[in-house]
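S.,

Sequence below, as promised.
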Amino acid sequence: MSRHFIALSMLSLTLALTACSGEEAEPIKKQSAQVVPVAPTTTDDGAWKTYLGQVAGQNQEGVTDRTIGYYLPMNSGVPTPGDVDNKSQYDRQLEGVQLAVQRTVTPGNLLAFGSPDSAKMADLIVAAFTGAAPDAVKGSKVLFIGKPADSARVQPLVEAAGGKYIFVEAK
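The prediction came back faster than expected:
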């Protein structure tokens, strides 16, 4: 048997099983929608990215365009010896968010921010949104996953830029 035939057969079988199990798929969706993600207790990047993706996925209502995620690992902002252009990940993220906010974000997008270092992520959002135009994120949602004290610093700036602010406590 050729590889193509095997691949096509497996794809056909997968599609057939998916079509046949359509009635059973609905309860599974309902169960997963009720699961509350739990923040990792470590600084493991993979676990944090998975958690942030789950939280962002639960906040998709009203998002008609795309979700843009911003993640900072612990100890961001400290250039490393292998950093060729001497810009830390924090600096690169900040520059990217500032450019997006300055150019204005298309309505219907979700900007999702999270990090095991809530204060550092809040610093980034505050820096990026300070002085933003009143309609910079109008019609879009800005999700911050972090600590309540950091949320209090972020919310006024996001709302001043026209965004719908959503806060989820990382716990």
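Helices lie at 3-20, 22-33, 45-57, 89-103, 118-129, 148-160.

Coffee later?
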